[in-house]
Design a protein that fits this description.
The protein is mainly α. The protein has one domain. About 60% of the residues lie in helices and about 0% in strands. It has helices spanning about 5-15, 20-30, 35-50, 55-70. The protein is globular and about 30 Å long.
Length: about 80
Amino acid sequence: MAFSDSFFNRVEKKTNVDKNTILDLAKKLQQNDLKNEGTLREVIQTLSNMTGRDVTKDQEDKIINAVINDKVPKDIDKLI
């Protein structure tokens, strides 16, 4: 899936995370198993630190449950 520069601009505007950081994280995600709870917790913490937003244990558990059970929307562009 290819994302346009406008997508990255919208993400950066909302999160203050630049395109290169996003692409580096995407590479990391591609190289790991996203059904692995440990990997998901690491990614969530990385994103939390990058965006400066705290994620509670309950929120983290809900995110992990959604990802593992394929309950994540497929069209990410609509979320931004």
